[in-house]
Amino acid sequence: MVASVTFGVGSLVWVEDPDVAWIDGEVISVNGEDIKVLCTSGKTVVVKSSNVYAKDSEAPPCGVDDMTKLAYLHEPGVLQNLKSRYDINEIYTYTGNILIAVNPFQRLPHLYNSHMMSQYKGAAFGELSPHPFAVADAAYRLMMNEGVSQSILVSGESGAGKTESTKSLMQYLAFMGGRSATEERTVEQQVLDSNPVLEAFGNAKTLRNNNSSRFGKFVEIQFDQRGRISGAAIRTYLLERSRVCQVSDPERNYHCFYMLCAAPPEEIKKYKLENPRSFHYLNQSNCFELNGVDESKEYLATRKAMDTVGISSEDQDAIFRVIAAILHLGNIEFVKGKEFDSSMPKDEKSWFHLRAAAELFMCDEKSLVDSLCKRVIVTRDETITKELDPEAATASRDALAKTVYSRLFDW
Ligand SMILES: Nc1ncnc2c1ncn2[C@@H]1O[C@H](COP(=O)(O)OP(=O)(O)OP(=O)(O)O)[C@@H](O)[C@H]1O
């Protein structure tokens, strides 16, 4: 469609620009395939006609709310439209029934309050400004009217806003499918509170996103005949395991580690914790704090969310014992042992962390040392125990930490 457009002197066009992606300008001469464009920056460039895109001179300055209304649906046209809308604080735009969200990187609470939700309730798709609530409402109504399950796919690169958009969708579905809150733990509140729990254990600061989900998830919300939420299931996929033992500056390990180090004093004592700077699994990076985040408050909020979701206090204690044990595991260093190519914990400090890990895992100290410093090979005829050198023992320590963490997360 785009290739068939011919350009003459005076045509308004878009051309690629190394600094601003696309820049607009006016054709000042045409020489076969070569088109000379005077850009709005004042620069003149000569480009092949196949790299020139028509600009709609009648496009409204504030953009259009549905990009199917654009005269030209090509990359510069789409980006220009999104930018025009973003400049007037409109972060959502439709392309037909697809919603495009541009991350505002600032809280916009007025967009997501209950007044807003009631506005979208039952409104025809496209009648109100583009919004995740409209997408959720359309899905909810289709489900009710046709009695067929609906799916909403949220995709985008890291930091694009998938997690936040998913939360808005869940918030709206909980609003539509909620019942009057007579009991303390309503299903919809449990559905919503699963987010902080998952984020505590599956999110971390990365270069691009302070709260990056390091796993994929499939959220299923079930409704009864009357459209009330009757249950929910969340499946998670492919947690990034390597982060548990390896963090590069200025990223962080999973949030739960830092939260636990900021727990109330009696818990710090129970889990034998110290400053996060003293743990190898955390101090490989110099980033310990997040702007505007109080880890001790986050810890209490996570505990509360775990209560709502229905994780018993014994289970919560076991979870945090495992988290603390992993931190202690990371601080066990190895030196050569007495036998050839063997290893043992390096010094009193390593023994301290080993004992702490064993106590928290509720396992036998000797068995833990053996599992780190030896490898058991089972053949058809016999069982062979092989000593590991310090390097291999360190690798087996990290493998244990990763396996335990990812099993805990799956649980
Ligand atoms: N609608 C929004 N309103 C306010 N802030 C937002 C919105 N969407 C995203 N953000 C901000 O951008 C950050 C990154 O968004 P989010 O975590 O949703 O991205 P993501 O696509 O899920 O990234 P990842 O794939 O790394 O998990 C959020 O922590 C939040 O600060």
What best-fitting shape do the alpha-carbon axes yield?
A: globular
CATH hierarchy class name of the domain at 67-242:
Alpha Beta
CATH topology-level name of the domain at 67-242: Kinesin
Biggest sheet record: 5 strands, antiparallel
Task: Give the helix tally.
Answer: 13
**Tally of strands:** 15
How much helix, percentage-wise, in residues? 25-40%
| Structure class | alpha+beta
Commentary on this structure:
By secondary structure, the chain is an alpha+beta fold. The chain has helices at residues 75-87, 114-120, 132-146, 162-177, 187-202, 255-261, 265-270, 280-283, 295-309, 313-330, 348-361, 365-373, 390-410; strands at residues 12-17, 21-31, 34-39, 44-48, 53-54, 92-95, 98-101, 203-204, 212-213, 216-223, 229-237, 334-336, 343-345, 374-378, 383-387. Among the domains are: 12-54, SH3 type barrels; 67-242, Kinesin (3-Layer(aba) Sandwich). The chain is 39% helix and 18% strand. Strands 4-3-2-1-5 form a 5-stranded antiparallel beta sheet, with no helix packed on it. Strands 6-7 form a two-stranded antiparallel sheet. A hairpin with a 3-residue loop joins strand 1 (12-17) and strand 2 (21-31). Helix 10 (313-330) runs antiparallel to helix 13 (390-410). The structure holds adenosine-5'-triphosphate. Adenosine-5'-triphosphate (ATP) is lined by residues 103-105, 107-108, 156, 158-164, 209-213.
